[in-house]
Amino acid sequence: MPRIGVIVGSTRQGRFADQVMEWLTPFLEQRTDLSFETLDLRDFDLPFFDERASNAYAPTQNAEGRRWQETLAGFDGFIFLVAEYNHAPTAALKNALDYAYPEWQRKPGACVGYGGVGGARAVEGLRTILIELQMAPVRHAVHIAGNDFYAAVTGQQPLGALTYLDASVNALLDDLSWWAHALKAARSAGTPG
After folding, report:
1. Closest Cα partner for 47 from 122, 13, 98, 104?
2. What residues does 137 pair with on adjacent strands?
3. For a disulfide at 108, which of 39, 99, 102, 179, Cβ 3.0-4.6 Å?
């Protein structure tokens, strides 16, 4: 069964990501085709990237960077919880992406975005980064947006009340499952390219 890392992409105090993870978890627990593990960037003390080069070209010197790479290597795909800061993903998430390269290759990436416009601009920017890392960004995404986002942030409405998002979550997980199984088989077969 493919292993999927759910990457919590914000590290700031008071982050909304914890609510998103709590809301998303029951959807993940219902799946029998994938296994999931949370990868919270708070648990990895990654300094700002300051290596000679990507680990695609030179070994990483920083011990925490190597630990991050070793952790990622065991997964077959990823879900990114994407906060939008100034129309982009967080610096913490971008830094974590930069600390690895071979560990991301030929694996699918799915996005759950949140913010004023559902993190749409951050998700779109992240997808271009995932392509450069030779990942396969899945088409479906989840966007927690607008008044519903603000109501959840301020505690006026739980995310569970946004049942219209259920179809998006299930479509995302179906896409992710297809790509995770297909790419895992292709990597195992040593498919050239």
Report:
1. 98
2. 109
3. 179
Among candidate residues 27, 51, 37, 42, the one with its CA nearest the CA of residue 6:
37
This model's pTM is above 0.85: yes
The Cβ of residue 162 has, within 10 Å, a number of other Cβ atoms equal to 18
Find where tokens 């990622």 sit. Answer: 72
Interval 15-25: pLDDT, tens? 999 999 999 99
3 state SS of 158: coil
Query: Cα Rg for the chain, rounded, in angstroms?
Result: 16
CA pair distance 66, 58, nearest whole angstrom: 12
For the record, the structure tokens of 70 come out as: 């070793």
Contact 122, 88 (CB under 8 A): yes
**Contact between 18 and 50 (Cβ < 8 Å):** no
What is the per-residue pLDDT across 79-120, written as a single tens digit (0 to 9) for each?
999 999 999 999 999 999 999 999 999 999 999 999 989 999
Q: In Å, how far from its chain's centre is CA 81?
A: 5
